[in-house]
Amino acid sequence: MAKLLQRVEINLRSFYIFNSSFGEREGEEHKKVLYYHPNDIELNTKIKDVGLSEAIIRFTGTFTSEDDCQALHTQKTTQLFYQPENGFWLMLVLNVPKEVRLKEGVEVADYRGAEIPDRIYRATLRQCYQMFRFLNGTLASFGSEESNPDKRRELLAQQLQGFYEKYLLTLKDLSHCDIIDMLHSVQYLPLDKSLFLRAQNFRMLSETFPAIKETIMLYQEQILCGGKLLPEDLYCLHSYVVQNVLKQEEGSSTLALSPSLKRSISESQVGGFVRSQQAGEGDGSEQEAEESPLKAYVTVEKQVKTYYLLIYRALHITLCLFLDAEQPPPKQELYDELHAYMAPQLTSLARDIASELNKAAVGATSQESASNIESAPKYLFINEQSLQHHTNLARHMPQGIPRNVLSIISDLANPSGESEIESASAEELQVKTTNDYWIVKRRCNFRQYYVILCNSKSTLLDVTQEARRIFEQELTDDVFFDK
Amino acid sequence: MEAEQSSISVDANSTSEYLDAEGDPEANDSETHFYQEADHDEEAELQNHSIISELRDGLGADQSTALSPEPGQTKATSVESLALSTSTSAKTEDSNSGQEEEHDYQHDSVWRGQKKHIFILSEAGKPIFSLHGNEDKLATLFGVIQALVSFVQLGQDAITSIHAAGMKFAFMQRSSLILVAATRSNMSVQQLHLQLGDVYNQILSILTYSHMTKIFEKRKNFDLRRLLSGSERLFYNLLANDSSSAKVSNNIFTFLTNSIRVFPLTTTIRSQITSTIQSNCSKIKNLVFAVLIANNKLIALVRMKKYSIHPADLRLIFNLVECSESFKSSENWSPICLPKFDMNGYLHAHVSYLADDCQACLLLLSVDRDAFFTLAEAKAKITEKLRRTHCLEAINEELKQPFNAKLYQQVVGIPELRHFLYKPKSTAQLLCPMLRHPYKSLEELACLEAIYCDLLHRIHNCARPLKLIYEVKEREVVLAWATGTYELYAVFEPVVDKATVIKYVDKLIKWIEKEYDVYFIRNHATF
Questions:
Q1: What pTM, to 2 d.p., does this model score?
Q2: In this structure, are residues A250 and A258 in contact, taking their beta carbons and an 8 Å threshold?
Q3: At what angle do helices A403-412 and A118-136 cross, to 10 degrees?
């Protein structure tokens, strides 16, 4: 029938932040726009976009609360709204997937707005805010030492510019976002008891060094112990570490000369502190020893507190230390002391974990054969309260689960933050898609379990049996799911 | 009063009702003539696609005018038949609001908190309709809507929906009209668009597409209410099909599945009725459809060979019959446009109930506007024959004691089945049981509706459709199943286990297939 000529996937059209209270007077509308990407758009267009968003917000306010406007769908775009703090709105505007078909000799564009699962991208938007807040504090309190409101606005705009310019580059390809991106959960690394206890021991550092308030440990990209951080902050920390520390080191070939790292990392037998690169400067020379380390803003007991974030690496372990920022920044002596104290134990722990994992990997590959992998049932467990997940979905493989199945799962999922009154406390669900995938979902006690099977001949009962088998088999790790 | 009436008494009857109705008897204002015969003919000829004009051409020069009512009075009859508001209950919110001057809807929490709002305005921002509240007072809101829509249009784009705190807004633009639905219920945006489409079709049904576009071409800010005045009850009834109105009824299900319900009758009776209609109408040249309805269900449909009637059009016909009390007491002759059949022309319908003692309504739709007396005759003969063959009795019996009241627990033997919807893929017809406990109260109906909206939305999702959904919830077990031949949506008690559900479903399907011809019409007969 109509031949498909071209398909353009979902992509980012613009991202902007505005606050209406900044530009209430005539002629000052441009002040409402705190940040706009792409930056090279004409100012008038920016103001018009902000104006439309404000109008939509007010329109919804006629019928319901103004504070929770969520999305505007037009034929060609999807615009997502998020108000993290009173008056500050973040907007993410996406171009919907477009298919150009040839119908009777004419090229017709078909906009497939319905393919976009809103929730996933709202979560992306939320994370944009969370990352900024993690590293810079809340928007409202930024630049609070400056008394002139105009100047404060200037500072905030500059900071937003600097932060988002880099951050937006690191956004994951939007057409491949799925449920795990939506829930912002992290995968913990399951360890056997003794190793686990040794890892937990590092939390005792705060006894010896009272300045340290919190410790988080990661092995490669997975968390070993999460401390008492709230799940959102943990996720931010995790993505920060993955983006800025681990990815950096992969990119840099000559480690010693890289300005962002003071010491060479995983290859060296001696661990070391990582100095983060502050916005735009640094030549990494010794004189920077006095510079203040990175600050992180973390919510503790419903209040935002500032901590210094020190990152220490040994082999594949990354240890994040949070120091109270009320105190003056730590001096070189503290670094040396910590280094001397931790280095040997941390390095040996890292080695042991590595060998443990190697053994497990060798054992596993002998059992699985490549041909089974596609048809083997996939599962996904999510603990909503601690935002941990556990899965064998191969997320980065292009031949993995088809897109529609992943989107359906995200439709079915209960997003974190959904009020308890709305969502049922217990439910079970089986769903069969048009391409013969079965998805079984069970939810109870704030844990969601999904099993994905692909078998066109199964009946409902077969699928239930299979799912039950997998639940029982994989759920033994539950001890790591409890915080 | 006998259903058979002479031409004079028809006129007298209609005129007297006409005078009883509110408003001026002789509306001489040239702009309110929405039934302009001369123009209409020209238009019909101009449209190449007008099916009605094709049929008319087939008529030839044989136009019997001798027995028809005078053109002037035809107009009067037609105006009146649509303008009758038997009850102005539609405007209760309006009258409740007390003083007419400045009702501030922004701060009226009752208005704001309504479950569903529907707004219709012209592209120029002129208010046309609002489900709740007086549309005049909402002029600012309409202005805002119009501004939003046109602003987005400037960017070569169009608003489709807005989502906010528990509410969904759906926008639709059709030929110089902007339609907006705002709802707190579970209806998906797709379903809301379907509802707006229905409302739009209702407007077309009164005015025809060509007439409306011509008006708006001439004057962009024409106030369409002038042409629609008196037909508000049609809109209110059309939109009262879900739990946001205070009615507990099955109408929501037909709307959601885009189908109609069939009056259960044995095959013999139904074929008897169909053949009666066929034999009495086959000689009438320009009769396109004959529709027999009772209690919002279809008894029989006979059609001209090449043409079929779309379920959306049938819904409009059901809607018209359901809210026009006047049809019960007299024969009526009114123009009606069926948008999906031909949106540019009017069909003329002879509408009447079969007999005083039989509440089945027969509509004979013809392209010939002078065919009133021929059709009246045909109808009389049909009633006569149906009475003789005891079909009327059968219909009455079914109306009094619905066949499927206690059916599902006793006959089919599935006590845990609370409710279901069954729709065969090959026809747009629906089978659903009567609402019984626990779904007799409004809240429970709202829950049930939410369940079905959700299931239907997921199964028919245009981006990610599904074949089967089986969900165990706290208060019920729901199953939705779309196979190649049918769709089934069922709600069970929460304590049933999976194997039992499957057994029950099998049983139900078998039973339905056995009784298929009682509840479904496989093929509509033709003239």
A1: 0.79
A2: no
A3: 70
